[in-house]
Amino acid sequence: MAFDIDMIKQVYANMTERVDKAREIVGKPLTLSEKILYSHLWDGNPSKAFTRGKDYVDFAPDRIACQDATAQMALLQFMQAGKPKVAVPTTVHCDHLIQAKSGATADLKVANTTSAEVFNFLESVSNKYGIGFWKPGAGIIHQVVLENYAFPGGMMIGTDSHTVNAGGLGMVAIGVGGADAVDVMAGMAWELKFPKLIGVKLTGSISGWTSAKDVILKVAGILTVKGGTGAIIEYFGEGAKNLSCTGKGTICNMGAEVGATTSTFGYDESMERYLRATDRNDVADAANEVKDYLTADAEVYANPEKYFDEIIEIDLSTLRPHLNGPFTPDLATPVGELGDKAKTNGWPLKVDWGLIGSCTNSSYEDLTRAASIAQQAVDKKIKPKSDFGINPGSEQIRYTAERDGLLDIFENLGATVFTNACGPCIGQWDRSDLKGEEKNTIVHSFNRNFSKRADGNPNTHAFVGSPEMVAAIAISGRLDFDPMNDTLINEDGQEVKLDEPLGIELPTKGFEVEDAGYLAPMEDGSGVEVKVNSESERLQLLEPFVPIQPENLQGAKLLIKAFGKCTTDHISMAGPWLRFRGHLDNIANNTLIGAVNAFNKKTNFVKNQLTGEYMGVPDAQRAYKAAGIKTVVVGDHNYGEGSSREHAAMQPRHLGVAVVIVKSFARIHETNLKKQGMLGLTFANESDYDLIQEDDTFNFVDIKDFAPEKQITLELVHADGSKDTIMLNHTYNQSQIDWFKEGSALNVIKRENAA
């Protein structure tokens, strides 16, 4: 039986009336995305049609999911909201704070010791406020959600950008910052600009070496890392129906890498099979009763160009396997063409590691396809040339895979099976085979491959592919290996060829697990005491942010002008810094240390205008804060791309940064800045980025007149006394301006609760 089945049945009960009303108001057939959005309006039944990409809309999500690294700050904020219990079903999953090093048993034991304080805090807060708690080792949040909570037609938010994975089960699932989650936990509406819609029509059927992962690798190459910003990607067509449910999840998961608000698929037989295989017959039965409401109207898919803002068509029968990278997930290359491209660009051809797992590709089906390649290496006496690491997606998958002999296959190949956790995908990898910043290549089945992400080495060239392709490339030890056409020499000196991978969609003997790792909260947690040691270096109770006054925005100084790609990893690194995610002041010491200074092309080396000295970014910012001077960060396109981590907004805010001015924002980061009471602005004329000089002073001359759809005038005062006046755009509505004036969205919640 499913979690929250009564809630799911209520969603379906409301859906028919609300969708019918929405169709009447909009006056045309509806996409699946529109059906879910219009059936989750905060005010209930629709009363108006919304303009895509323009109207801000209040929604009522069905549930919330938080991972341990982001849950700390989210729950520290919720503790300030004055609420006795979360208003909607919420879960916390401990998957980020477990470092991959020696293997599952040893690594989990170390994590439970080194992060005991954080795990105990999260467990006690969950118990107090009615939140379901998944213990360390239970699995990766998005795989656990897919197995237990996701349901067709639902809406959920999660404090992780890959919350979108649940689109594989027909949800509208959206990654948000912790402050957004706090709104919903506190029983308030959740605001989102009504998304545009990108339709991806899939025809044909995948076969051979091509996998579901190659669909999104191809889409990433088409849309780039910002092409999906502000849009929901809806997949449809016979090709979509031919994909497994977990394959759909893989595609939706990596939609975060093109900036999409989320991605989703219409309800079909593969989803029903998956629901029943994961012991949710009741959900499948309920979904079948309203199945016409859980996919788009037939007219939409018959004539998609009338109903979507953009259409992409991919023939799965001709789609080739891809490897994307390095350093960006949208650099898409068919496998057979990668060798020449690598030689031209000087990418190392020798592959040191093949890593299989992550929230993108750690399902049972993924493991079987990769294991079929690994078994061939054993049977054909091919000695792997690269090291292997495996991260199962959940304890249920790990237990079932062990029962069915899949893990033995990998271990016979010399692979290390890590904990059911994120591990190397988020930089939680104690990689012992490299010293310094040696140039090298790895291949993995993850979703992101930004510089330094996996192992902290800026010269690690990471390439993203399917689990089976990662297995083949790692066995060969060469980036230019094409398993469809190339051969390998085995230990007997014979020339052998790998056969096509074989996968099993769902375990023939069913899923099995002894302890899934779930702890239900107390019915009444009012007596639970949550303690935070004032001397802790891991946890720190929050103090409300003080509003930024108009006078603070005259005479502001430049902190850094970031050059090129500046993701949330550049603004607030993960890896070893994850241990400070619950301590705002300590983690603030990594603020923007990965951003490249446009004036000297160095990282963590900026000019302190007060002294003229060059120093680390956090050091310079703390000097400005001590002097009572607000600062400005300037950035390029798609600033804040990547993770949903609100630390990338909270840290600069805590240190005294008041304004971020960029050519364009990634959606989640822009919202996070707004939530924390900062100004997130864009150049009206992108070329004005070039006017910013190293010693500039900023005067936001008309900030007192801050209003929706009204530009802000910025006076730049240069070191020689000359001035430039430029115009800045913003997307703040009146509610968001109130957040700014109150100091943060959380301050508004506290004020309203006090009233």
Automatic annotation (TrEMBL):
Domain named Aconitase A/isopropylmalate dehydratase small subunit swivel: residues: 558-686
Single GO cellular component term: cytosol
Superkingdom to which the source organism belongs: Bacteria
Keyword flag Lyase: yes
Cofactors: [4Fe-4S] cluster
Family: Belongs to the aconitase/IPM isomerase family.
Family annotation (PANTHER family): ACONITATE HYDRATASE B, ACONITATE HYDRATASE, MITOCHONDRIAL
Full protein name: Aconitate hydratase A
